[in-house]
Amino acid sequence: MSIDSSPPTRVVVVGNGMVGHRFVESLRARDEDGRHEVVVLAEERRPAYDRVRLSEWFDGTDLSLADLPGVEVRLGEPARALDLAARVVSTSDGEYRYDTLVLATGSYPFVPPVPGRDLAGCFTYRTVDDLAALAGYAAGRGTGIVVGGGLLGLEAANALHRLGVATHVVEFAPRLMPAQVDDAGGAMLRRHIEDLGLTVHTGRTASRITGTGEVSQVVFEDGGVLHADVVVFAAGVRPRDDLARAAGLTLGARGGVRVDEACRTSDPHVYAIGECAEIGGRVYGLVAPGYAMAEVVADRLLGGTATFPGGDTSTKLKLLGVDVASFGETAGPLDVTFTDPATRVYAKLVLSDDARTLLGGVLVGDASAYPTLRACLGGPLPGPPLSLLAPAGAGDPSGTGGLSGTAQICSCNAVTKDTIVAAIHDGCADVAAVKACTRAGTTCGSCVPLVKQLLAESGVAMPKALCEHFDASRRELFDIIRVRGIRTFSELVAAHGQGRGCDICKPVVASILASTGGGYILDGEQGALQDTNDHLLANIQRNGTYSVVPRIPGGEITPEKLITIGEVARDFRLYTKITGAQRIDLLGARVEQLPQIWRRLVDAGFESGHAYGKAVRTVKSCVGTTWCRYGVQDSVGLAIALELRYRGLRSPHKIKAAVSGCARECAEARSKDFGIIATDAGWNLYLGGNGGFRPRHAELFASDLDTESLVRYVDRFLMYYIRTADRLQRTAGWIEAMDGGLEHVRAVIVDDALGLAGELDAAMAEHVGSYVDEWRSTLDDPDRLGRFVSFVNAPDVPDPSIAFEVERGQPVPAGAGRQPVMLGVPR
Amino acid sequence: MTAAVVRETPAVAVEWTAACPYRCLEPERGVVALVGGVPVAVFRVHDGRVYALDNIDPFCGASVLARGIVGTRGDAPTVASPMHKHVFDLRTGRCLDDPEVVLRTYPVRLRDGLVEVGGLLQVGGLVEVSGQG
Ligand code: SRM
Ligand SMILES: Cc1cc2nc3c(=O)[nH]c(=O)nc-3n(C[C@H](O)[C@H](O)[C@H](O)COP(=O)(O)OP(=O)(O)OC[C@H]3O[C@@H](n4cnc5c(N)ncnc54)[C@H](O)[C@@H]3O)c2cc1C
Ligand code: SF4
Ligand code: FES
């Protein structure tokens, strides 16, 4: 045992938000001898979470920040009073003595003192609890009004819009995002947002909210009135300095706990950090300066002399699918601007009067140059201004070669190019490793493209090899096969791989060959590449039998066909079940029964449902205008047309779709790879949803499309996905992994930014024109039927290892060790 | 390299069963033959060689191995079970993902264009192929 000369000191942190959490994390990491004992008092009941990504809560994203082992965090126990003389903070549950107190209480949303602001239906937008309450109330309501057209207001508007509410944004300044962008940028932003169907009111002030019990109207100072079911206040934030004020600490002129460059308040034992602090005469409403303060205080407590370096107020957002970025000064001695009304891109760089130094800038509509530009702030530009501003594709705005070593790549975490390059030299081989060892990219994520670029420039090969047989990725193999016109696996593996393949690469190559050449998927060598499901055109089950799923396009089926399915199931003793995708599954078929079953089904007009393939599965539909009193378009008709158009299309993973006849969304289209929801004016197209392992909602891609444009977009979307996605990557993951995400997809399929549209259209036309039902082709050819036998040397002997028993009146695999499901019914 | 040790006890104990004509074996795919009442998977690999091993996937008990994808891992010719994708060395029957598990392999010969599989009359194995000496 050793005797410690200095007793541990006790640090109490008030506030478990982003900055408080960062402070504790940093102190814990650096306080190697455990000199400081830490208690955190937290008002919110949830463990610390990432407020910057708050809006992603709607997507089900896990926002939690890292756990802090060994730290006592008192959730749901806010500090109520502070006694500076006794060095005690008290809560309703107890008193906490401290040696050092760190205030990290953040801000509260400012709600203008308008009458009616307490009515049900008025919300703020700051915490997860706020969002949960808003989502619960707003879903299914007609109109919502967001008060405030700044960064927060637009995020809140985005949320309302996504909740299906007709959304208005009211901003009292003459432009949107007055704090971040200039007039021209604000005007361009407004156009983008109006394109999406939101209504923008600038230069207007809400003066009164009326309603009985619940909000029903917003009245403006100019006398105008808007109907509203929901109002969200996002009119800015104010520092939470009440605790400090009551204790007698010095505050800033406009609020905020005043601190010196070491983040110390007027009491030497008390620090304040984050949004509640006023430092250098400013209160910062962004997380990066807060993190810098957290690091300063951690350093000070460990005997260091760090000081606050000044805050970066750069912002980049993607709001309603519109990129907006602003950094440094937005006005200055010399401007270079770029405006393109066609693509709705606006960009401006602010330069020093000798045009040598970048002082700031504003980007609207395309912010791909943001990471590079921000890293150059205060230094020379890496190239001629216009080449940096032209929209992506026109040049390479993201090269890092021109950046100096001290350029800050990650402004959220103050990580320079040198630090990242050093980490790469020390063995960080991918983005995840760089994030783990430098923290770059862990907050807003906008610097990740630059981190990737640095990895690539350092010669680090991104892991992309498909398997031991191919160093290439699926996407590269696709291009090789397409461009070189390769038609067999042997040819491909001889020239571009090694060995003879495996269960990973062979099905991938089979799928690419199917997409590039069409034709029967089991002909010649291709048959040997297929997984058993594709090989036998049925799905393998746990006991080695197969299931049969005939196509029922859109879920619509005649009584005659239903009867046929029933008869087939009865005659072959199959187990039947309605699937989750509006069709009927016949299970328990032996290999040798498959052709006989399909003969009956094909004769009755059925065809393969491709339930076995990595292929288009179903386009689910609701009854729509055909029957439903709410339907506004023929959802069944469209679903059937789409299912027939895309049937048989082979893809990197299965593709599912749905069409709903109105916004009630009974077909659950937003949980599909592509989902369509009818509107009065046409169709809204949503892309990139799925259920399953990691459920994701599809995002709105385009509104009020006519059927022809809709089909064109879906054609291109599917073909672009098929060409470029990784193996077993659903569309959601594909979009997520893509630089530029859904915006990039939009650029390719709507604006034809890569000049690919013609090719994609032609590839789809080729698919649609060459479709043949796989089961019909199989039945028509005795050679192809040869593989459907139990034993090559005893085709009449059924496999004795397959046996059934009866459960709820249907056959199921025997002796699979299943237990009856008991529901706790009293005996 | 894996040393294949073949121990043979009196040849009388091997009974040859015809599976199918060699030309009916699709390259890099399997078929199932019934050999003395036991389902045996017979594979033809890319270089024309034929291997035979138990058709029952020991991990799930279903008789499915012949329907797996044939390929290579390193130098080993392999099949991946279609059920849960366990990979087996066709030469030794050893599961490369779980080396404790070894499938029985069967001798194969070609007679008049017919592929024949050597069945075992006695449990205990007259022809036993084991890896790693
Ligand atoms: C028939 C069906 C559509 C179809 O053709 O597939 C359908 C039809 C209707 N749905 Fe639905 N829903 C149908 C499955 C669904 C599903 C999918 C599911 O459950 O599998 C959903 C999404 C999941 C869910 O429950 O949220 C769904 C979410 C809704 C909603 C939205 C509910 C919500 O809280 O958001 C409504 C509107 C409402 O009730 O407020 C709705 C309302 C309706 C009503 C009752 C609208 C009405 O008030 O008239 C529709 C009846 C039409 C009519 O006149 O017959 N239906 N509806 C589906 C019947 C399924 C059934 O088993 O009977
Ligand atoms: C929707 C939204 C989007 C944003 N987007 C961005 C962005 O893109 N980029 C960016 O830089 N910033 C963004 N911000 C701002 C960013 O979230 C804040 O700058 C950051 O969270 C500040 O951290 P903080 O710890 O100072 O405050 P907070 O994260 O607010 O944490 C303060 C915590 O202290 C608690 N607390 C208050 N009083 C007490 C008390 N008496 N006792 C105990 N606990 C108390 C509060 O409940 C809260 O949990 C966004 C904010 C929101 C709401
Ligand atoms: S989505 Fe609309 S049209 Fe379709 S069934 Fe539901 S309520 Fe009716
Ligand atoms: S700049 Fe925000 S995470 Fe790097």
Automatic annotation (TrEMBL), chain A:
[4Fe-4S] cluster binds at residues 622, 628, 662, 666. GO terms for molecular function: 2 iron, 2 sulfur cluster binding; 4 iron, 4 sulfur cluster binding; flavin adenine dinucleotide binding; heme binding; metal ion binding; NADP binding; nitrite reductase activity; sulfite reductase (ferredoxin) activity. It catalyses: hydrogen sulfide + 6 oxidized [2Fe-2S]-[ferredoxin] + 3 H2O = sulfite + 6 reduced [2Fe-2S]-[ferredoxin] + 7 H(+). Residues 409-457 form the BFD-like [2Fe-2S]-binding domain. Residues 10-281 form the FAD/NAD(P)-binding domain. InterPro entries: BFD-like_2Fe2S-bd_dom (IPR007419), BFD-like_2Fe2S-bd_dom_sf (IPR041854), FAD/NAD-bd_sf (IPR036188), FAD/NAD-binding_dom (IPR023753), FAD/NAD-linked_Rdtase_dimer_sf (IPR016156), NasD-like (IPR052034), NiRdtase/SiRdtase_haem-b_fer (IPR005117), Nit/Sulf_reduc_fer-like_dom_sf (IPR036136). Keywords: 2Fe-2S, 4Fe-4S, FAD, Flavoprotein, Heme, Iron, Iron-sulfur, Metal-binding, Nitrate assimilation, Oxidoreductase, Thioether bond. It comes from the Bacteria. Binds 1 siroheme per subunit. GO terms for biological process: energy derivation by oxidation of organic compounds; nitrate assimilation. Siroheme binds at residue 666. CDD domains: NirB_Fer2_BFD-like_1, NirB_Fer2_BFD-like_2. Residues 541-602 form the Nitrite/Sulfite reductase ferredoxin-like domain. Its cofactor is siroheme; [4Fe-4S] cluster; FAD; [2Fe-2S] cluster. Gene3D superfamilies: 3.30.390.30, BFD-like [2Fe-2S]-binding domain, FAD/NAD(P)-binding domain, Sulfite Reductase Hemoprotein, domain 1. Belongs to the nitrite and sulfite reductase 4Fe-4S domain family. Catalyzes the reduction of sulfite to sulfide, a step in the biosynthesis of sulfur-containing amino acids and cofactors. This is assimilatory sulfite reductase (ferredoxin). It comes from Rugosimonospora africana. The lineage of its organism: Bacteria, Bacillati, Actinomycetota, Actinomycetes, Micromonosporales. The gene is nasB.
TrEMBL record, chain B:
It comes from the Bacteria. NCBIfam families: nirD_assim_sml. CDD domains: Rieske_NirD (cd03529). Keywords: 2Fe-2S, Iron, Iron-sulfur, Metal-binding, Nitrate assimilation, Oxidoreductase. InterPro entries: NirD (IPR017881), Rieske-like_NirD (IPR012748), Rieske_2Fe-2S (IPR017941), Rieske_2Fe-2S_sf (IPR036922). It comes from Rugosimonospora africana. The keyword DNA repair does not apply. The keyword Metal-binding applies. This is Rieske domain-containing protein. GO terms for molecular function: 2 iron, 2 sulfur cluster binding; metal ion binding; monooxygenase activity; nitrite reductase [NAD(P)H] activity; oxidoreductase activity, acting on paired donors, with incorporation or reduction of molecular oxygen. GO terms for biological process: nitrate assimilation. Residues 17-117 form the Rieske domain. Gene3D superfamilies: Rieske [2Fe-2S] iron-sulphur domain.
